[in-house]
Amino acid sequence: MLAVDGVHVVIQSVTALRGFGMTAAPGEMIGLVGRNGAGKTTMMRTIMGHLAPVQGHIRVDGTDLRTVARHHRADLGIGYMPEDRGLIPALTVEENILLPTWVTKRLDGRQRLDFVYGIMPELKAMRERKALLLSGGQQKMVALGRALAVGTRLLLLDEPFEGVAPALSQRLSEVISALKGKDLAVVISQSDLNHSQSLFDREYIIERGANGTMREKAH
């Protein structure tokens, strides 16, 4: 589903990714693990098209992302939950969840919304609240719901547990765990493995933008 091969990314003359590579197959849950500043967010932003690789290839379901404009990548079934949540404060919870479906012709927004509410009923209960009135943890839940609304093939979750109260962190973990084994490929970036290590089929260690040791779960 996802194939990253030898990707180099330069940000303001600083090399942020140095030949990094990873793969994620349908049904797999992959950990992207590294310290702060190691390149985890850079990798996810590059997949989403916010940054452009100067070398290497990224393919999603066989499609070379160099041929896909940033605003068309949701059409490939990629859902993205950024570390900073990226919600629109003046929109309601429901509007934030639906937002990517409005520009993705292949999706039925109402059907995807029902899917999200089925997995995360707490979002339905707060659907009419403005995003700016939510706590940080609640905003993380909404950002996950928005990613699920459009992420039918690949889900990218950047530090989903960072800065979240323990109860909400546990709830996020439950929701993500429920996705395991489906056709969806899930990539989760983490610096702290306390919440998610048991979820992963495989972990890619990233160190200063390059591949460290890969860890695969024993079966």
Automatic annotation (TrEMBL):
The answer on whether this UniProt entry bears the keyword Translocase reads no
Instruction: Report a single Gene Ontology molecular function.
Output: ATP binding
Please give the superkingdom of this protein's source: Bacteria
Cite the entry's keywords alphabetically.
Answer: Amino-acid transport, ATP-binding, Nucleotide-binding, Transport
Q: Does the keyword ATP-binding apply?
A: yes
One Pfam family, please name it: ABC_tran
Family annotation (InterPro entries): AAA+_ATPase, ABC_transporter-like_ATP-bd, ABC_transporter-like_CS, BCAA_Transport_ATP-bd_LivF, P-loop_NTPase
Which SUPFAM superfamilies does this one have?
P-loop containing nucleoside triphosphate hydrolases (SSF52540)
Q: What are the ABC transporter domain coordinates in residue numbering?
A: 2-218
Annotated coiled-coil positions are none
Into which family does the record put it? Belongs to the ABC transporter superfamily.
Q: What is this protein called?
A: ATP-binding cassette domain-containing protein
Instruction: Identify the taxonomic lineage of the organism of origin.
Output: Bacteria, Pseudomonadati, Pseudomonadota, Alphaproteobacteria, Rhodospirillales
